[in-house]
User: Fold these one by one.
Assistant:
Number 1:
Amino acid sequence: MSSTEEQVKKIVMDHLGIGEDKISLSSKFIDDLGADSLDTVELVMAFEEKFGIEIPDDAAETILTVQNAVDFIDNKK
Amino acid sequence: MNNKKVLITGASGGIGKSLCEKFIESNAIIICTSSDVEKLNNLKNLYGSDHHYYLLNFTDKNSISDSVKQISEDHDDIDSLINNAGTTSDNLFLRMKDEQWYDVIDINLNSNYYIIKGILPNMIKKKEGNIIGITSVVAFTGNAGQSNYSASKSAIIAMYKSIALEVARRNIRVNTIAPGFIKTSMTDELNDIQKDTIMEKIPMKKFGEPNDVANLALFLSSKSSSYITGQTFHINGGMFMV
């Protein structure tokens, strides 16, 4: 089973159609990876589905980078 | 519409029934909602167990989110959502009771907020879907005695345009239908003098049939309208031309 980081990166890469070389833990979804605001909503939905967790709206708004997502998910597990 | 799933609110009303029948005729699976248990049971007897039925009362804020959540969990593959539920509670603005104002805003406008919020995430996941709101000609013309109703119907249009902009890239289309005077229980309440006054303003000299609205909704739900979003369609015998 791959790490949270690998799984999060895979979701983000698939969703935004970007290559592995473009993404790092510090990548910001909107500023660095070209996501629009609805993409970020979709990413949160994809994380919820993949990891079987619920991410409330106020928490979702603080998930701006790959690292933020990994931290949130690891804390929830 | 073969086996496509269509959620229709206010399914037991005049236009609602016509929508149900039209989509069933087109081989869709319909999910009906009504705020009245008895009317919902009547629909069940009429359309049978191939289709689905939910009690949904838009004036009960405590239950509405849960009810909508239940629908979206039971059916994560809704193709079309038709927000048709609506009510009137007419009064001159200066005579209007708070209750009349809020009930009409809750049932006609806020219902759209709750139901779209519940159903849209699955459409976004599928990257496909469409949402149709039933508004009214009075959203454009105003109508004495209907400040609450016309405000709610006008608000839907702006709301739908904004949502249309947000989800267009996800292949989700969002449109509204603005009927004029259609023969339903809502317009049956008018007396003959009122009907004659309205008729004078209708160039086609007849009221519309619920089926006229259903035909348009079917078109807007189908692939035939795949490049149409953010629009309002008037269906009023010419009484109001944009």
Number 2:
Amino acid sequence: MAPVISLADIRRVFTMGDQQFEALKGISFAVAAGEFVAIMGASGSGKSTCMNILGCLDIPTSGRYHLDGLDVGGMGTDQLAEVRNKKLGFVFQGFNLLARTPAIENVELPLVYAGIAARERRTMAQRALEQVGLAGKEYNHPSQLSGGQQQRVAIARALVNNPAVILADEPTGNLDSSTSEEIMGLFTALNRQGITIIMVTHERDVAEYAARQITFRDGRIISDAQTKHVGQQG
Amino acid sequence: MDFLQTVKIALRALRTNKMRSFLTMLGIIIGIAAVIAMMAVGSGASYVISQQIASIGSNIILVLPGSTTSGGLRSGSGGSQTLTSDDVKAIMAECPSVDLAAPTVRSSALVVFGNLNWSTVLMGTTPEMFEIREWAISSGRSINQQDVDGAAKVCLLGQTVAENLFGSSDPVGKMVRIKKVPFTVIGLLERKGQSPQGQDQDDAVFVPLRTAQRNLIRSPFPNSVGALMVKGKSEALLAKAEEEVNSLLKQRHRITGSKEADFSTRNLSEILAVAEQSAKAMSLLLGAVASISLLVGGIGIMNIMLVSVTERTREIGIRMAIGAKKNDILLQFMTEAVLLTMLGGIIGIALGAGGATVVSRMLSWPTLISFQSIAIAFVFSAVVGIFFGFYPAKKAAGLNPIDALRYE
């Protein structure tokens, strides 16, 4: 099966004044459809830079990145925005929901930018909220929801456009341990439905939920290990 | 992203900071209200002037006799008796651009009816004068050519004279005495109002020219007349008519070379056109001053939009991560700015129109709010939004999504 994501010798050099800093020093890996991957590493290891490149928010200095068959390398900002809109779903540490906006409208947001009609948006958002167990909370504003519920809304928003990959950046970073378990349980369940998930975390017990762990250090991958078989119970 | 959705998002953002939105709008509200009110007052002034032009009648040239010198004293314009009824006939016959010409003689006279009397202006003239001045009869009939030829003792009364002598009853058919000579009132003229110089044009009594010359004025030059009124065939031909009258009269009065003319011509509508122009310039000036406050309001909008972009950096980051293109963000902030200024514009138009109405009520000064000025104000407020909203929106659209998402 063709991989959903393939990175080949990705380098990312940041230039600050006359100082150069190489955050990624030649990264290559591939992710197949249906995988649940955890990217691990200490801060400054390059995992966040890698995540930004995976998320089409940043452009690598060199190397090739194919996402769902598309060569993302040579794309302009608007094309990248479209790729983010159609192929990717984001879950952030800080939830990043729009304040004073009902849950369902937050979930609809990617569809708004995709140009989908209002009625269809509503149905799709409704379905996504049901998928994350938030039926009945559609019209609550983020401030009226708990942290776990907010993160579920964010996951529903990531799911709603049927992306090729869901990228989660420290999704449990702002949650207590029992809520973290709840959210990770949801990710596992979604993965079992065939959704590809790539998650950045520095917490080992959170990484345990993933079937494969890639560890970064100093801009390089130091280990890439299958910890369970795909679809295996956690 | 569809436009309706953009407007919805913008409205929500404005609602979130109601007080701030209102205060920002206030600059535009005041600016637009000032522009509307000033334009209304200004065009009210030009309306008054154009009314006055209509009241004299259009396309009129006034020919005045020149000054005389007797015993070293120059009498000033109109003092001599150089114009004659024959000049009028010649002008009618020989000037192709002239439509009508009428002579007038002028004096003051005491008009008596019963035990009431009224001192007023006496004008002797021909039927053409009423046509030239577009002055209609409100009851009875006008002076006709037979009245002039036969020096009939008939008169027309202006409204002011009629009110003072007859009150509200109809004067037609009554006998009045002008300078002790009995006259039959044959008609009442319509109200004409004030002249541009502020004289009451209705305070006058009109008699046939020859009657005035023979029975009332008794000038030593029985054929001479006072001022002539000449009407051009059209407004475009007025300057040409003036020229023709000038050269014809010079020829008839044997004025050659550098000899001073014994008459002068005045183009009344020209004088008023200048006055109207200056009123227009005035209203433009007022509008320009008012639009400075609009500029200040626009800068306020830009300021607040910049604050808003900074405050909502994270929101911009989220939208970008989720798939908003640069143009989506640009459009969103532009829409917000334009909505702000257009709402301000609408409120300002209402306020300005209201203010103008109050001014016109209190100062009894006519104000005119044209659809045009409302449309201009509305478009202008939108343009202010586009102009001053562009830079902040551009700044928002140019944000890097990674930095924007990390912004605290």
